[in-house]
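Why this split exists: single-chain examples teach little about how molecules sit against one another. For that reason, every record in the complexes split bundles all components of an assembly together and asks for one structure covering all of them. Below is a record exactly as it appears in the raw files.
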Amino acid sequence: MQIHPAFFWIWATLIATSVIRLDNFLVSSAAILAALVTVRIAPKSLLRLNAFRLAVRLAAIAIFIRISVAILIGVPMPGKALFTIPQITLPEFLVGIRLGGEVTSQRISGALNEALIFAALILLFGASNSLTTPTKILKVIPQRLYGVGVATALATKLTPQFADSVMRIKQAQFLRGQPARGFRSWKRIGTPVLEETMSRSLDLATSLEARGYGIKRETTRYKADSWRSAETIALLPAIYAATLLPTLSIALFLVALILFLSALAPAVLR
Amino acid sequence: MIEFKNVSLIYPNSEQTIIENLSFKLHEGEFVLVIGQTGIGKSSILRLMNGLVPHHTGGILSGEIEVAGRSTRMLRPGELSDLVGVVPQNPINGFVCEIVEDEIAFTMETLGIPVEVMRKRVEEVLDLLALAPLRTRNISSLSGGEQQRVAIAAALVTQPKVLLLDEPTSALDPIAAEEVLSILHRLVNDLGLTVIIAEHRLERVIQFVDRVLLINGGGDVQLGETRQILLTSPIAPPLVELARVTGFEELPLTIREFRRSAIEIAPLKKSASKLRGESLIEIRGLSCSYNEENSKYALREINLEIKSGEIVALMGRNGAGKSTLLKSLVGLSPVITGTVKVLGKDPRAFDSKELISAIGYVPQEPGDLLIEGTVGDECRQADIDNGVTSGKTFEILTGLIGTISQSIHPRDLSEGQKLALALSVLLSGNPRAIVLDEPTRGFDYEAKRKLVEMLKQIASQDRAVLLATHDVELVADLAERVLFIADGELISDDSTTNSLTASPAFAPQVAKAFPDRGVLTVSDVRKAMENS
């Protein structure tokens, strides 16, 4: 049985809502775990692993940048000093900003909390993207939004091909005796890759045009994706988490647990 | 069915008219072939027939085009999609869905055809094109021929009266091409479909078509019966060239028609091949695999030696392992066991300097090698990269294809010129071996003839040339030795004459016309006739 193409997007949006609203590292961590587990247990046929790997990388970069910034730059904050790095004296007009100096536990924990929220959002939507067949999204978009539909089709179809083109052209440049590193190599690879992507976009747009895309307002579906009650049930924990007003730390723990369980739901749907 | 009335077409930013005052009529149930040199406007004519030109591409159109009484002037291409089905030049770029069934149903979905009708029609075309076993497969996992059939199915599912195909066999091996063309032939006969096809390899299609539309350029267009057009056409398949040499009352279009004439020639004794130079490429016991776990080999136990001065063709079906073998020569294949030696050294150990002076590799898309905005800049960059005197690369280029303007953008070159530019860039590094992967896609006969000259010239400079190709006529003209590869194994390594006459699917037309005479090309026949 097919999972509805919109399911993972709604699931991700709901959990993201709770992550932002609750602003708690336990919830963010639970959401990250939920995203990872969902991808891990998803049926292989559904998953585009490369797309998710990219999301994981992005999330790691987000955490890294946020923590580094917290250590290097910041306003003096009270709290227990963990360690001190050399401070650089800044000009007078930059009052209140400091480079280096004392790093307090509060600064780190605050930054970590924010970083986890970023990472959770990236991973949640990364997971839903990699678990949804791109062309199915095209069919969810109404045809009267012709431009949006064509743009979606181009983006979803060409992104994975883009990675292949880069690989192939990198190889070709290597064969021309050019190392595939450094800024100069990007110009060498960029030009042919962009040209190829352009011509492929034109081909696909031509095909959509020739096949009557956007002509009729009413379209039909060859194999309709139905939203079953199973989908709604699988969403319940996420709905609960998104609407809950937590007051006690126990409630937060509960939310974390629920988020984790909601990740298992897609597997139940199978 | 299709009527052009005084049609002229000019593209924006162009000074030359593509079509001038063109009038013709195509009838229902006709199989029409559009021929002409590369870039002369074959695709434009096809695209005019469903309004993609000028609605989608831009351009100024005068005159009137009617398809089944409907004018393309007022209708968007999509509004004609129930009447005209299109199979684009690179079907893979035009696919919207991932699964075969979904792709076939897509046009009907956009047209809002009821589900019950849709289901029935999908089943019909799946059967018609023998795609039923593949219905749930991912399109990207299909072979080229299968993808071509999916594209045809997707075009036929709206039950159009006209089917347009732009070079449907250019990426296919001979067997897959035969399959696609015989399906088209059946559709014309069984369904009364009007099929219009643009194709360079006339030897593959000429026997099936009723009429030919020959585009000479400069607005000069001829439409007529196949025989009548081919009698004077500058573009002709080897069989027609052969008939022109041997003399004929009625032009033969099939091998059977030719053989009826009962012309015979004396067997041609080919002079023993010249002494070869030193060994450049040596492969011993090479096995490659992209997936070690399931132990499926892309190449298995290959042994091979290629010497300088040789031109060797590598043939086999799509996916047999040709590209993997070529890539192993530049160290880009996943070697499991065995050794590859180029100039006595493992190519994986080459640094970039050694690589360019040992072997030049032209990928399937020669454009991958090109980066600059003009031909002149490209050549200058290659001079710098390869550390040769300024102007050397351009000199090589003009040596290959004659004079050419330095200010042209590489993208605006013809396929043949683009390949020549990529070859020049590599040759300025003075490599001992040149390797080409499917060099003749989209080439017309003239471009192929020039390529043959180019590669022969390159080989005569004490270099080795190895090319993977599906084009038997090219191999007959060019190579002295043919390697056949099937399912990763080298199944034959023999002289071109022996190799190409062994299997009818891979035999050139001349060899079929004169079996057991040792002739492969029209010039072979000329020689044989002079001898007798």
